[in-house]
Amino acid sequence: MKICPTCQRSYQDETLNFCLEDGSRLVSSTGSEQQTRIFPASTMPTLALPATSYPGTRLERPETRYAKSSNINIAYQVIGHGPIDIVYVPGWVSHVEYGWESPLVASFYRGLASFARLILFDKRGTGLSDQTTDLPTLEQRMDDVRAVMEAVDSSRAVVFGMSEGGNMSLVFAATYPERTVALITFGAFAKREWDPEYPWAPTREVRQQFYDALESEWGGPIGIEELAPSLAHDQSFRDWWATYQRRSASPRAAVRLARMNTTIDVRNVLPAIRVPTMVLHRTGDLDCHVDEGRYIAARIPGAKFVELPGSDHLIFAGDQKRVLNEVESFIRNIQDTPETESVLATVLFAEAAYDQAASAARFLSLAKREADWFKGRVGNAPGRFVATFDGPVRAIRCAAAMRDAAGRAGLDSRIALHTGLCEISGDQISGLAVDTSAAIAALAEPGEVLVSTAVRDLVSGVPIDFEERGRRDLGPELGQWQLSAVKRSD
Q1: 134 pLDDT band (50/70/90 cuts)?
Q2: Does domain 65-332 fall into CATH 3.20.20.70?
Q3: How confident is the model at residue 264 (pLDDT cuts 50, 70, 90)?
Q4: Domain boundaries for CATH 3.40.50.1820 within the chain
Q5: For residue 375, what are the CA distances in angstroms to 148, 197, 361, 378, 437?
Q6: Within 13 A of 210's CA, how many CA atoms are on the CB side?
Q7: Among 234, 269, 407, 458, fewest CB within 10 Å belongs to which?
Q8: Measured at the alpha carbon of residue 397, what is the angle toward residues 396 and 401, in degrees to the nearest 5?
Q9: Span 41-65, average pLDDT
Q10: Which distant-in-sequence residues (6+ apart) come within 8 Å of 371 by Cβ?
């Protein structure tokens, strides 16, 4: 027999390790003596309660608090006291409080919190976080994660991204390896629109049908047949899912976020990830093909791919026990990894034509001023200007401002941007990303800002106009890149 030390409820089932009343780890009772056991992952229970009981659960729920990210309030919750932090990045839309109304979601959260401190949050523009008139950029969303981590005094965490949340998690792990203990994705995709090199994603026509459905049917259980087929005929779950979506976003916001997410392409980011990574994907996922998970894992150095049975895309539908077992086992077996100076960054390389040393000094001065303003990191590169940024949007805006300032000073600048892996040691910046941006700058016309497709693929929901410059071969080591000129960035 086992008992709960909190509510004193008794359980005859020896395979059950967590109280279904309050989520506490159960205590084994031997005679009058109670002994606490640490159970292996293989015996973790399935905490899913019957799908027919959907009124609010009596389990105690964490308090919702707010973290400030620039001028935006991000809603978050913390549950659990484990030795390691997990930041759970939700999919398309979420609501940190109403999620607890589903016993399936509540049991999944409590399963994670049984072996870690779990950090939940709503992305800006969704749920209880501030609504915004502008669509969020990837770097803003990464800033939001860092703001929440700082609010709860978390210096490093396992970043766990589901579905669309996997995109940002992949970029976060590559950009901030010093803040990322490990990376886990579930049902994630690298690209959301079909192309010949990524044939599993929906076509543009299929995505448009999805947008049309959002505009006409928002408020009902949209997408439930593909997202959770095992629960598609459960009326209680359908009602909860419809309400969850309504509370997570307005109809207009849902469509705008869906359109923005469709433009994201993180394929070029994958080789830059250097933290322990596990990619989870269900074999029969109807919303995101299992080959997309295989693609991601194959391109991240050392990543572990785990193919799970089932067809549900939602992580809390289907077999939770297997998911929780895999996550706990992976986290418990994370090996200490040496600190690395290699990070994903957008590298800005700038040069200008000038005849006098005074002009050179003036250009370098105005270039540094703009880089500082846009939170860039200026490198020590005699005779040339190099800076790195943790996101492409800030880098593009900096490059445009730099170009305009140079033009007002009578200097013809050539500026290039490329996102990739680079090595940063003190004020020294080097690596293939620097060499690639320098090679692209050599192709720029006076007064032009050129960007590689690695930059453009990460820009979404931002009013930046580009003009195609074609595909150029930068050499055997740097490869071929599609280039675009920045025409407008306001």
Answers
A1: confident
A2: no
A3: confident
A4: 65-332
A5: 20, 35, 21, 9, 19
A6: 20
A7: 407
A8: 115
A9: 47
A10: 348, 377, 378, 387, 398, 402
- Tens digits of residue pLDDT in 183-230: 999 999 999 999 999 999 999 999 999 999 999 899 899 999 999 999
Listed residue (169, 171, 206) closest to 289, CA to CA: 206
For residue 85, report the phi and psi dihedrals to the nearest 5 degrees. Answer: -95, 140
C-alpha of 395 from chain center: 19
Domain with CATH 3.30.70.1230 in the chain: 342-488
Nearest of 163, 108, 123, 175 to residue 322 by alpha carbon: 108
pLDDT score of 377 more than 90: yes
Specify the fold of 342-488: Alpha-Beta Plaits (3.30.70)
